[in-house]
Amino acid sequence: MTENKSKKETLPRVGFYICHCGSNIASMIDVLEVQKYAAALPGVAVSREYKYMCSDPGQEMIAKDIKEHKLERLVVAACSPNLHEETFRKAAAKGGLNPFFFQMVNIREHAAWVHEDKKSATEKAKDLARAAIARVRFHKSLDKKRVAVDPNVLVVGGGIAGIHAALTLANAGKKVTLVEREATIGGHMAAFDKTFPTLDCAACILTPKMSAVKSHPNITLWTYSEVSKVEGYVGNYKVTVTRKPRFVKEDLCVGCMECIDACVFKEPKFKDKFNQGLGKRKPVYIDFPQATPKVVLVDPETCIQLKTGKCKQPCAAACDRKAFDFNQKAETKELQVGAIVLSTGFKTYDVARSPQYGYGRYPGVYTALEVERLVNASGPTSGEVVLRDGTHPKAVGIIHCVGSRDAKTNKWCSRVCCMYSLKLAHLIKEHSGAEVYNFYIDMRAPGKAYEEFYDKLLGEGVHFIRGRVDEVTDWAMTPEEEGKLVLRVEDTLAGFVRRIPVDMVVLSTGLEPQPDAQEVRRRFNIGCGSEGFFQERHPKLAPVNTFTDGIYIAGACQAPRDIPDTVAQAGAAAAEALSLIDAGFVELEPNTSHIVEEECSGCKTCVPLCPYSAITFDEAKKKATINEVLCKGCGVCAAACPSGSIRQNLFEDDEIFSEIEGVLAK
Amino acid sequence: MKKYLYFPGCSLKGSGKAYEESFLAVCKALGMDIRELEDWNCCGATAYMSVEETKSYALAGRNLAIAEREDLDVIAPCSACYLVLNKTQKALKENTEIRRKVVNALKAGGLDYKGTVKVRHPLDVLINDVGLEKISKLIKNPVKGLKLAPYYGCQIVRPYATFDDQHDPVTMDKLMKAAGAECVTWPLKTRCCGGSLTGTVPEVGLRLAYIILKEAKKRGAGAIVTLCPLCQFNLDGYQGKIASKYESVDMPVLYFTQVLGLAMGLPGSELGIKRGIISAEAVLAGGGLR
Amino acid sequence: MPDKPKVAFYWCASCGGCEEAVVDLAEDILKVVAAVDIVLWPVAMDFKKEDVEARPDKSIVAGFINGAIRTSEQEEWVRLLRKKCQVIVSFGACANSGGIPALANQFQKESILKYVYDDCPSIDNPGKIRPQTECVDEGRTLTLPELRNVVRSLDQVIDVDYYLPGCPPTPKIIMNAVLALLSGKLPPKGTVLSPEIALCEECKRKDSKPADLALTEFKRPHQVLIDPEKCLLAQGLVCMGPATRGGCEALCPGGNMPCTGCFGPTTRVKDQGAKFVSSVFSNIAPKEEAEIDAVLDGIPDPIGTFYRYGLSKSMLRRKLN
Amino acid sequence: MSEQFEPKIVAFFCNWCTYTAADLAGVSRLKYAPNARVIRVMCSGRVDPQFVLDAFAKGADGVLLGGCHPGDCHYAEGNYKTLRRMRMLTRMLKDMGIYDGRFRLEWISGAEGDKVKSVINDMTKKVRALGPLDLPGKFKNWDKEIEELEAQVNKGDKDKEAVHAG
Fold first, then answer.
1. How far apart are the first and last CA of chain B?
2. Smallest CA–CA separation between A323 and chain D, in Å?
3. Are C282 and D81 in contact (CB < 8 Å)?
4. How many domains does chain C fold into?
5. Domain check: are C118 and C222 in the same one?
6. What is each CA distance from C242 to A636, B184, B244, C76, C229, in whole angstroms?
7. Domains, in order of start, for chain A
8. Pair (C123, C228) in one structural domain
9. Are residues C31 and C155 located together in one domain of the fold?
10. D interface test, pick of A656, A657, A661 with most D CB neighbours within 10 Å
11. Strand pairing of A346-348 and A511-513?
12. Is cis: bond before B8, omega within 30 of 0?
């Protein structure tokens, strides 16, 4: 009936621009042919090609044309809109055209780069151009909505990344809430003894930052807590945090630890997580002396009072500040923040997946993290390298790439193992004087002063054997091997199989995403890469941004990463958050939906479809309405409205129908 | 209770007779409904594969085809049979070309094969179908004081580790502990016993067998317990030669089914205890048995 | 006295209900008859084709044509009327969008003929004789119209000026149309002479519709005792109301029957069935494919349900083969 | 050279997962068939079944709809709405003679550039095997049956005009 009526009306004047992108596009698409083709399409007033449309001269050309040729619409065929849509909208605005009278055609990522036949790639480019030109006619003049940004920030994860990000933001005068799942901040770094390659003591450089967090007036520190819910949108997030009960009042405890001495368990009896189970703790405990906050907690799994309710509670008695509260319950808190920094860290590879290395079967086999505690002055052995059987190792073998660079387990290089293996080699030698053998595939020491550190160890007489260890066994073939752990390995430099007898084996485990990375990313509505680490918005140009505005990532939750890089990234994430906050407002894409009141029959179909409760039913008018600030522009309601009474800006039916016709019409 | 078909293969009818006797006796004692596969033929063993691939698959495939008519799981106690039948099963599933040829060959013999048969090992069935709980209940006569070195050999965990760990298998250990025995921990559970090399390149084969025996002894085992007729044959049968070439080890090599049978109170005579070349009498007596 | 404006009524593939609708104008029809000169109305008066052909072109003010177009004869007639009439009004669902006859677009012509003349249990046709478009009998050539393979809406054959929706159109909207014509106050060409708002707007059950239907099953009217007050969709019945143009004042829901969509979609919607599917099924309860399918099974004949009156004007027009 | 049929596939990709995956495929220089024409929507939930029908009616041989994996929708649940609608649409298409393979719904996350490649290649191959759908052509053919008569009538008019002229 009224179909395609608009076609017969006089068409708005379209300017079409196609980009060579150097040779990126031009090498696979006949740019001139497309430019000529577009020139002949109805409504096209100007059609040009240019080497780099995104360059200043390119944008200038557009702005100039808009004025001179009275262009009413703009189409640019170049790269992905995810990259340069904003650029060309600005160019349009410069020329005095509403930026939304613009449509971008992706002929680089979606054509030039993925096809091998120039002819068909060019045809595709024509089709896409034709569709955009057909569609842009229906575009309307739109404005971006501005919404204020809440200046407060949430940092999730209190490892070195979270600590650094929180301090950076707090020092800039922002109110920061730092949420940490464990009872103390510090993360993995707090468990380390020294840090490579400088060998400065981890505690010495970390603890000042930890206490700075605790004492900073702008930082609220919530440990033993987890984010359970995130609502809202960039600049205006509502976050729900669950605080697990410590059974000790945080504000009253001063960390004197007299309760620990008083506990009915005279001796520490339970595996102590912080020391990787090498040490023992009591039901009432504190992870380590510098734990922050320095507040004890009670473990409900092992505390007699909490398990049976029948305990004399000497701990509580010993506390003159009456900090104990065995009835403490988990509490939920709500926060309003404008930006969120995720620095949830990593998990080390589970060595049970590599049974050939005998972990759990041979007491002499350790994971790298265990050894970190073993060589640590404040560790269970006070830094003395003592094996589980009480003996001191004379020879130690360090196996690199356990759970890294391996088709059977994890394909990726964990990036830190070579360096921390060198560090451990040095420390073990230093602490025990043992012979140390490193079994590596390739030695990767690409950081500042890293290669030099490797040299230094070569000088120290640490042995390096290039080859992936096949198995660790206690089967002795020779008298020398008796009572030893034997590492069987092909020495790929010497070209034969060797058996190296040692007393201690260290498995340099790789880094993996946190086991709950998937739930976490869903909670924060961001993506994960195929290996399970958080997905950055762009691998090179937006490494700490995510696809959800206002949510940034830092540290090893994004990929395996060492301390210097992690801290640098945390700074970057903080800076991104600051630039968002200090702008004071965000401009929201105007691709929201709206209901044409006089067309709405009030059938309510759309109301339950909106995940953001942006659609409400006006009982007085008996019609539905959309709150365009809450609307995030998915368009589900527009697709569902049975009487076609909902329009989504930039994705109106006419626009999409004409785009469909456009790609197909020949 | 589930029904099974039993594929003996040549060994259990010959050198591994004791394995068959003890295996069937144990099944009987456990009340398992198990029946020998009718008209079965040689599995082709591991050697044939490398000579005549397709034919070897057809040879083994015939057994699968016969089994499929009954639609029951097949238990293959011999490691070689177990491996070959599984390999064939896999090849027929994944390689359409081979399946076409083999099925044609079978058709010529009035048979067909869809690929539904499951080939299983006694350990798998005892642990996962019967269950340790039930077995423990039937242990009338635990073999206290018997210290065993459980030896699995290469074929049931390589290349397919379907029911146990490839590097450190434990199912047999569990059964032996249930039987009241003590198990030494040792790293050679799946190391090569010498296989056919004992016959072809004795200097190598004997050495490999010797390594196993010696290590078991060193770890204080009174006997090796195994599940593979060839391993049993190598380790038990060549001890004389080994004694003359290296040293006398004098280590009885039993089948796990024998130990299980004894623990369940079955008479040694039904379990072929006496068939071993190195007599187990002494150790078993030490274990307070018979 | 100047002669009264001439009007013509014609019917194509239709049930006669639209003719009834005209009669249903009751005493109003007298006004109409008084105001106009009816020059063609096969159901009521005896005019022949020659009579119409004899009239000068455009001499008839308005032609009201109901029924879908599926034979050559209907095409001849409507083309003729197009010539003789100033204004052609597509009258009723069948003319507008094919209506019930258009459900035949789910079948090939041959399969229909085969059933009707060979297979139908009530047929006695041993010679398997089929009607011929032309046969010679005693030297005289007899002809029959050709049955087309595609059932068409009126506007798929001739140019149409206005549309009166409904199966049949209600007296009220007919009267409004006639008065508009007589008064000469005509809306733009192509207008559908009925409100542009969906039926829910005028449905008495509207307020009883919950926002979130989250349906777990669909029922058919004969399977349930229908609550006379409550929204029919909320009762798990397929009510096309939300995707159907209003104007009938929700007659069917008023009569305790779900809307089946005879007024067609609003002008903003191109394909009534697809749009209805988009709306109702977005919101059914299950998330797993199997569970979703179980709910969909409650609708054994989707095409017949969602395109009951509109298959000719659906985007796909007919079953491919 | 032999002219093999090149199907036209219209692909509706959601901005956050599948469109991004297609960008990733590009950045990774994966090579795939040039038959798909991508139309970007913010969420697969924006895709109205009318769009799919229209694409076929306007000449598409296949229609591909790409969204985030269930549970991963950038808009929480949009893809479930898509799934439900499209399950029904698929049934309707079948009833109208457009069979499986011509319309396809795929979940492709932003990290699955390789899946964009494999899906488009696979669909191109399968639709090529199905042959052209060409609804526009079919519509023309269907209407041939009424053209003859139309021509006669028009001719009739011409004759008259001639007479008047004479």
1. 31
2. 42
3. yes
4. 3
5. no
6. 17, 77, 96, 37, 17
7. 5-144 (3.40.50), 156-230+516-576 (3.50.50.60), 258-329 (no CATH), 347-512 (3.50.50.60), 593-648 (3.30.70.20)
8. no
9. yes
10. A656
11. antiparallel
12. no
Q: Which H/E stretch holds residue A316?
A: helix A314-318
Q: Whole-model pTM?
A: 0.77
Domain match, C23 and C87 both: yes
Name the H helices within chain C.
Answer: 17-23, 28-35, 49-54, 72-84, 93-97, 109-114, 171-183, 251-254, 272-281, 289-296, 302-306
- Give contacts of C196 with chain A, Cβ < 8 Å: 599
What is the pLDDT, as a whole number, of residue D163? 54
Bridge partners (DSSP) listed for residue A587: A146
Residue D109 to residues C299, D10, D13, Cα–Cα distance (Å): 33, 19, 11
Between chains, do A660 and D23 touch, taking CB under 8 Å as contact? Answer: no
Spell out which residues of chain B touch residue A475, defining contact as CB-CB under 8 Å.
186-188, 215
Q: What residues in A contact C210, CB-CB < 8 Å?
A: 604
Q: Whole-angstrom Cα distance, residue A158 to residue A343?
A: 7
Nearest chain C residue to A623, by CA:
C201
Is the CB of residue B159 less than 8 Å away from at least one CB of chain A? no
Sign of CA dihedral C115, C119, C123, C127: positive
User: Among C183, C208, C235, where does a domain finish?
Assistant: C183
CA distance D82 to A636: 9
**Roughly what angle, to the nearest 10 degrees, separates helices A160-171 and A202-215?**
40
Whether chains D and B touch (3+ CB pairs under 8 A) is answered by no
Q: Report CA-CA distances (Å) from C182 to A346, C5, C22, C61, C187.
A: 81, 8, 16, 9, 13
In B3-147, which ranges are continuous DSSP H helix?
A: 9-13, 17-29, 45-51, 53-70, 79-94, 96-108, 122-124, 132-137
- C96 C-beta neighbours (distance < 10 Å), count: 30
The architecture that CATH gives domain B140-286 is 3-Layer(aba) Sandwich (3.40)
Q: Given B167, B211, B215, which is nearest A356 (Cβ)? A: B167
H-assigned helices in chain B: 9-13, 17-29, 45-51, 53-70, 79-94, 96-108, 122-124, 132-137, 171-178, 197-200, 202-218, 229-237, 239-245, 256-263, 281-286
> How many C-beta neighbours within 10 Å does residue A540 have?
7
d(CA B199, CA C9): 106
When pLDDT is averaged across residues B88-106 and rounded to a whole number, the result is: 92
Tokens of B26: 């144990």
Residue B74 identity: V
Query: Residue C76 is part of a domain; what is its CATH number?
Result: 3.40.50.700
Q: Which tokens go with C125? A: 């046709």
Closest residue of chain A to D45, computed from CA coordinates: A636
Position C192 in a domain: no
Q: How far apart are alpha carbons A274 and A179 in whole angstroms?
A: 19
Could you tell me the CA-to-CA distances from C296 to C225, C232, C302, D63, D90 in Å, in that order? 21, 17, 9, 22, 11
Looking at the fold, whether C292 and C302 belong to one and the same domain comes out as: yes
pLDDT tens digits, residue range A450-488? 999 999 999 999 999 999 999 999 999 999 999 999 999
Angstrom distances, CA of residue A416 to CA of A195, A561, B113: 11, 7, 53
Is B186 an 8 Å CB contact of chain A? yes
Mean pLDDT, rounded, for A596-602: 96
Which residues, in sequence order, are CB contacts of A408 under 8 Å at separation 6+? none
Q: Where in chain B is the domain with CATH 3.40.50.11810?
A: 140-286
The alpha carbon of C266 is separated from its chain's Cα centroid by a whole number of angstroms, namely 15
How would you list the strands of the sheet with B223-226, edge to edge? B182-183, B147-151, B223-226, B253-255
Quote the CA–CA distance of D81 and A637 in Å, as a whole number.
10
pLDDT digits (tens, 9 = 90+) for A199-228: 999 999 999 999 999 999 999 999 999 999
Q: pLDDT band at A54, cuts 50/70/90?
A: very high
Cross-sheet strand order for the sheet of B33-36 = B33-36, B3-6, B73-75, B119-120
